[in-house]
Amino acid sequence: MGKIIFYEDRSFLGRSYECAGECSDLHSHFSRCNSIRVDSGDWMVYERPGYSGYQYFLKKGDYPDYHRWMGFNDCVRSCRLIPTHQSSHRLTIYERPEFGGRPTELTDDCASLSERFRSGDVHSCNVRDGNWIFYEHPNYRGRQYLVRPGEYRRSGEWGGASSRVGSIRRVAA
């Protein structure tokens, strides 16, 4: 189980809404989100309803304003609890769409794809085990994308604005 609390105002003030699981549309619960408290679990919060738009990965802790979760604005419209995965993680990334080009398997975090593999582009991937976060820039910075177990034939299928991936991190307990 997880628990996340959204607050309309900064520093955990104003109207609040507590959530314990997935919610595809939070708009009826609050009009803006300026602070978040994660009591338990790992969460991905999304700028738009239906798990779309900018994504923000949040672990247990306090986020007194949207800058603390690297938000661009006070808009949070959906959220997803990321299931805990305690066994091994396996991910295969590809140089081309539709699983084309050279495959590269990852089982651990990678702070810089371009340094480790001489490429910063991931055009498709197959998540075999565990949940992963793709980051737009090296060292786990920039836009974030949750990739759950499954096949992603093109970067747009995980919500990517492009195929640029700077770093990859496992979501581990």
TrEMBL record:
Name of one Pfam family that matches: Crystall
Alphabetical list of InterPro entries matching this protein: Beta/Gamma-Crystallin, Beta/gamma_crystallin, G_crystallin-like
GO biological processes: lens development in camera-type eye; visual perception
Key words of the record: Eye lens protein, Repeat
Annotated GO MF terms: structural constituent of eye lens
Residue ranges of domain Beta/gamma crystallin 'Greek key' in the record: 2-40, 41-83, 89-129, 130-172
Family: Belongs to the beta/gamma-crystallin family.
Function comment: Crystallins are the dominant structural components of the vertebrate eye lens.
Protein name: Beta/gamma crystallin 'Greek key' domain-containing protein
Native source species: Gasterosteus aculeatus aculeatus (three-spined stickleback)
